[in-house]
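Q: What would this complex look like in 3D?
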Amino acid sequence: MQEIQLIDIRQHILSDNQNLANEIRQDLTNNKTFMINVMASPGGGKTCLIVETIRRLKHKYRIAVIEGDIDSLVDSQKVSAEGVTAIQIRTGGDCHLDAGMVSLATSQIDISQFDLIFIENIGNLVCPAEFDTGSHRRVMLLSVPEGDDKILKYPLMFSVSDALLVTKIDTKPMFDFELSKLKERAEVLNPGLHIIELSAKTGEGMETWCNWLEQQIQTIL
Amino acid sequence: MQEIQLIDIRQHILSDNQNLANEIRQDLTNNKTFMINVMASPGGGKTCLIVETIRRLKHKYRIAVIEGDIDSLVDSQKVSAEGVTAIQIRTGGDCHLDAGMVSLATSQIDISQFDLIFIENIGNLVCPAEFDTGSHRRVMLLSVPEGDDKILKYPLMFSVSDALLVTKIDTKPMFDFELSKLKERAEVLNPGLHIIELSAKTGEGMETWCNWLEQQIQTIL
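A: Here is my prediction, written as structure tokens for the whole assembly.
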């Protein structure tokens, strides 16, 4: 009985979320503002990637970042130190961002004044995959230290993502991480998944990633 | 309106969960079976720790492992290769284990035939912290590559845990990880938190961890 109740509400929430996400995306497109949802485990390298991407693209695009966290302002502070607009969402306990939370954030800024908005989602490979936030693209990060088997355990995240960034690639000698295994599995699950290896620390792969991102931005202009 | 509905059901679920968890724990204690809930991010090192602990303790204790995953049997296979009983829970989409799922698993075995049961929870630093599974102790892993700031972002997990295992300590030279910062923050949030640094790969710290675990097992005998 209890479980049936839960499922009903979940479907209701997901359907409401989808409608709102579609509205957000349309509004952004009308304003020629591109939004990308960045998802990963805790410590997967989201903030570091966003900061390094900002450094490379901030002279070309007007950038804002929506930071999602259970608690703390630590990521917003890192991002705003780069001179871009940061909006922090504190979920209190929720383990993912949804379209409602993102619309609260976008309503605080004049979106027409931005070309590129990053959403840094809560560190979690499960629930963020279920909720469309209204972004144009979804990118997931998998760091080398996490292991190449994560696609077996968190398949939805790998299925809904447009690109997979294999991060901390500079630490590969320290870990048993077989990229070929990951690629094989991804090919079955999500053949359209674009895979880029990078290290935000050493800069390896950052140009490839920025080029891909810029191509995606072009699609809404 | 929608949000109020959600909160009611959540409280209902959490309260039902707590009652069932208390029953599970009592039943285990009556049978002198110690259960420990192991929680971490994806790739934090849970399976590796459990396998290495089994290798050290299996000649002394009769061990079973309850494996929680969204999908796949990969961890159960690793654990059963060590000759211990493995019970896999596939949640389908749920991002945490709860007492109901654990009771489904414990009902499949004669618990009186086991001294030590590990629960390997879903890789997630958020929701697993909210649900008592009926275990006697909760231990969380934070791997060095994840960074020392995770306590700011996922405070509940650090608050509810009895021990924090800082894993993959052998990779410290590769990462900016300040253990002193983490310890300072933990001292404020959860002064009783027992912190052990270890590497399941090199064996460093494994004896300290096994000693702590054996002390905990003694408390129910």
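A: To summarize the key features: DSSP finds eight helices and seven strands in chain B. The longest strand of chain B covers residues 63-69.
Q: Very helpful, thank you.
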